[in-house]
Amino acid sequence: MRLPINLLSLTLSILPSAFAIYSDEAYSVDYHHELLGLPLPHTTFFHRPRKDEKATLLYTLSDLGVLGAVNPGLGTVVWRQLLAGVVGNETGFLRPVQGENTVVSAIGSRVDAWDAMGGKEKWGNIFEGNVKDLEVMETAAGAEETKDVLALFEHEGKSILRRLKGESGNVAWEFEDGTGDVPLQVSTNVRSIFIVSLHGAWGGYNLKITALDPVTGKRTNEYILSTKADVHSAEDVLLVGANSAAPIIAWTDKALKNLKVNLLGKAGDLQSLPLKESDGPIVNVALHAPNLVQSQPHFLVHTHSSVSNRADVYHIDLASSSIKKAYELPKLPGQGAISTSSQEANVYFTRHTADEVVIVSSASHAILGRFPLEFESDHGSLLDGVSEVVQRDANTYAVRSALVTSGQDWVLVRNGKAGWIRPEGLSGAVAAEWAEIPESETLAQTLEAEAHSNPLSAYIHRVNRHVSDLQYLPGYLQDLPRRFLSSILPGDIVSPKPGVLVRDTFGFNKLVIVATQRGRVYGIDAGNQGSIVWSASAFEQPAGKTWDVKGIWVEHSKGTTTIRGADGEYVMFNTTSGNKIEAMNPGSWPATTSTAVVDSPSGKWLLPIGVDGNPGEVPTTWAPKENLVVKGSNGEIKGLKFEAGKENAQPVVTWTFKPALGQRIINVVSRPAHDPVASIGRVLGDRTVLYKYLNPNIVLVTSVSDEHSTASLYVIDTVSGDILYSISHDGVDTTQPIASVLTENWFAYSLWADVLPTTETLPASKGYQIFVSEMYESDVANDRGPLGSAANSSSLEPSDIPNAGPALPFVATQSFLIPEAISHMSVTETRQGITTRQLICTIASNNAIIGIPRTLLDPRRPVGRDPTAAEMEEGVFRYQPYIEFDPKLVLTHKREVIGVKDVITNPAVLESTSLLFAYGIDIFGTRVAPSAAFDILGKGFNKLSLVGTVLALWAGVVVLAPMVKRKQINGRWTTS
Ligand SMILES: *[C@@H]1O[C@H](CO)[C@@H](O)[C@H](O)[C@H]1NC(C)=O
Ligand SMILES: *[C@@H]1O[C@H](CO)[C@@H](O)[C@H](O)[C@H]1NC(C)=O
Ligand SMILES: *[C@@H]1O[C@H](CO)[C@@H](O)[C@H](O)[C@H]1NC(C)=O
């Protein structure tokens, strides 16, 4: 019979040719923490995006410069925009436009207006200088035009106020203050605009108030408040009321005994309000005032001592400009959190204490609502936040508040009950490391112990062990039906029990330890959708400082995690529980510039490396066995070796590498710690072999010259310091990201540079490119080069001939054009390295992570011709200069993973699979199978039908066997 070849090929062509990931696995094996950063009190608010609808959204511009809208009912992100620049530490401002579907943000030198509902940009402008404050101008009641925006800038020591048109963001007028005063804030009541600046003086500042005409932007008045004794920095000014009927400016005297208040625009007016102490001296004073022009001019002064807090409510009489105390809120233990909420003229204050939530009106001390606080204390105490008070009917009020806790969570409290919890402290991760879950069973150890004892006691021990194992038998038997069913029915392969940390047979259940810039450490369960297992504070970071983590080391056998920071601090945690075992505060040890996990006669440990790349002396028993590569303080890199003395071992510099004049080293990468090589050669189509150059002691160094726009890459032997390979590129944009990675016998890097016209049909141009180079022992197949098959070799004396140069690898390179910049590169890791590695690239402009298969990046792809039969057998196909970032390559699918700093990978027990974890602002994790999941059945595999088929076959055999037998017997009888 002839095979229907045409039909067969048609069938095959219909099948999809490649799968990046099985579609049924997307969104089930991967997880994503969509984070914003910690909300700041002055840029967080509830706002109604649609005028006619009651529903509000919660808006924030976080400490990481992420602008986001959150659904206050569910705690889910509605939209996000990453606004922070490269530095990422600028202070941002965010204001709602009352009655409009707009929020306005300002950060760095940009001011943008956003569609409050959908998050689309309405307009955006970039100005000279840095934004210092932002306000929305109220229009006269009834006016229909879009509200204008006031943006205060500081540029080269001068302050500039710009009034921007509400519909376009264009400048209506500009006011420049020629003096060198430091601009602080801008404030407005419909009649005037006030600029508050710090007026320079020795030892302190006076406050200068400049009043402007809103229409023309001309100065109408200016006066100076003498505050030299009390105000020493911008932080000493407590509040400049924004956009209210009677904006005020307030500060405290140095001893925190009196609050001084000036009504903006009233030159001679200075009122002093006494601050009342409760339980010891006051440590902090805060002011809360409404932000609406139509709200009553009331404000609240919140004071707290180290153990308790209390508050006073004041009313401003607009006619006489006097300030009167209306009532007091009693002293209560704890720090407390107070937030303001205004509804037309009414102003409500919501007070959160350790055990209850109280609503009061600013008009009188009557309590409008009181709810017991039901909130788990493991998120910490409530620090500050925003509230929304709603009047249900004449006497009932409801309140919901979004508050930041001392555990750096963002929580919603609805009438005292906990709603959603967003782990915003997890954002801003600066370092992460994989951790194995410690094995509960120590069977291996027990077996080893039995092997080393005498036969009789080993036998007794073994019988005892089996007897004690019997206690698990009932549980095992009980569990059998479930195990049987779960192995037949389709469903999740690993069904993790929440709250239980156990290893699984596939090696998917692992922890990731994450350290954040705010000094917190998290344990994340990668096998359970990235849930947070524990979190702990390592070191409280002072305001404006970020934790500079230099190394995390997880000691799997002991179950501990050590973290070292730049200021010599170090902390050790229990990997599974997060308990702090040991800690050394910053400054107690010398500064650390980097760390390395080293192997010594006493075991592995995390070696801190000090300034100028000097690790200092270590005890001989702890001396690292391997060579180290460190960065010197003059931009060079050095090779170090420890020379053992009697007691201590000294680091000795064995070589120094300095790039050419004008170049600076931007990156040094080495092969991953776990980088197994399954095959030492590459088999070609004609069954000959190219032997891989597999030197474990190499690093890839990237250096750039900003002046000449060049980038050079060097492969350096870390033992001898010899340069094994180097290449240089011209026309490089050194401000664009340059990423590189080194593994097995190949390395890859990407940059923006001139495209050489050598590649097929490509004109000379510029673009983002990725370069891939493979290193072989020789360019001739079946040749092992100068080293031959020697079992050992030395980098220092490569051959018997004296003064011979090093054995240089043969390097095959190819370049490809890519559509976008790669900000970070890493490579998958599998258990034995049999699976082809995949290049993992972070595309910051698209908020995506992609995995590029190695076959696409093969330098041996034939250029300008179709592959020969032998090449086809080898698996290479025709070279195409462009690599498209096909949606199939995108590991993050539709998810927007923002601010990725680094992607770390780890092998699973299954050879096919590598675990991947990305961190930065967001957290993202997934599993990748670069050569397809060849050792595990996909979720779509129908086990039931397999069992059904087997059963049907069995039934068929049972029924047919006697019939066949009978037929055979009958046949014999009839023929003979
Ligand atoms: C931001 O960081 C830069 C350098 O990292 C520093 O010079 C600057 O003062 C920082 N700005 C703020 C507002 O913290
Ligand atoms: C870590 O904590 C777990 C659970 O509390 C405990 O069983 C284990 O012994 C601890 N490990 C260390 C090294 O302290
Ligand atoms: C290297 O191998 C040779 C034999 O092939 C042996 O004599 C020599 O001692 C080895 N050197 C080292 C450092 O192991």
SSE layout and pairings?
Elements: H1 5-14, E1 31-33, E2 39-47, E3 57-62, E4 66-70, E5 77-82, E6 92-96, E7 102-107, E8 110-115, E9 121-126, E10 130-136, E11 149-155, E12 158-164, E13 171-177, E14 182-189, E15 192-201, E16 204-212, E17 219-225, E18 237-240, E19 248-252, E20 258-263, E21 271-274, E22 284-288, E23 298-304, E24 308-317, E25 322-333, E26 337-343, E27 346-352, E28 356-361, E29 367-372, E30 382-391, E31 397-405, E32 410-414, E33 417-422, E34 429-435, H2 443-452, H3 455-469, H4 473-488, E35 511-516, E36 520-525, E37 531-537, E38 549-555, E39 560-565, E40 570-574, E41 580-584, E42 594-600, E43 603-609, E44 618-619, E45 628-631, E46 637-644, E47 648-657, E48 664-670, E49 681-683, E50 689-691, E51 698-705, E52 710-717, E53 723-729, E54 739-743, E55 746-755, E56 765-776, E57 810-817, E58 824-827, E59 838-843, E60 848-853, H5 869-874, E61 900-907, E62 914-920, E63 923-928, H6 943-975
Helix pairs in contact: 2-3
The structure holds 2-acetamido-2-deoxy-beta-D-glucopyranose (NAG) (3 copies).
One 2-acetamido-2-deoxy-beta-D-glucopyranose binds at residues 558-560, 574, 576-577.
- Could you give the order of strands across the largest sheet? 1-63-62-61
Shape, please? globular
Radius of gyration: 34 Å
> Uncertain spans, ≥5 residues at pLDDT below 50?
1-5, 7-21
Structural class: mainly beta
Terminus-to-terminus distance: 35 Å
Mean pLDDT: 87
Largest sheet: 4 strands, antiparallel
What's the tally of helices? 6
Beta content comes to: 35-45%
Subunit structure: Component of the ER membrane protein complex (EMC).
Main location: endoplasmic reticulum
Membrane topology: Single-pass type I membrane protein
Keywords: Endoplasmic reticulum, Glycoprotein, Membrane, Signal, Transmembrane, Transmembrane helix
